[in-house]
Amino acid sequence: MRCVIARYPFDLFKGEVETSMEGVRPEPVTAVCVDIGGRMYPVKQVGEVITGQDRRDFTVGEMTRALTRLGFTCHATPPHLPSAVAPAYGPPAR
Length: 94
Description:
The protein has about 90 residues and is α+β, with helices and mostly antiparallel strands. It has helices spanning about 15-20, 45-50, 60-70, and strands spanning about 1-5, 10, 35, 40, 75.
């Protein structure tokens, strides 16, 4: 799907985004995030990886719209994690 992010056109596909994010460790989520392959990533981190642009070059809104159109679920705030499930980063929950 054609998306314009920071005035640059990109042809993005859901499968390619998932593949690009496979080996990427999620940063701590503090704001808008997206669920990719069962892991929560900050939207800006995903945008940087899939576009190759600096995070300052695009907005959260641009990336959220593009990822939603691709079929990903975006969250305005980090979803609650059950106590039995540890985040993909940091020490396990106790």
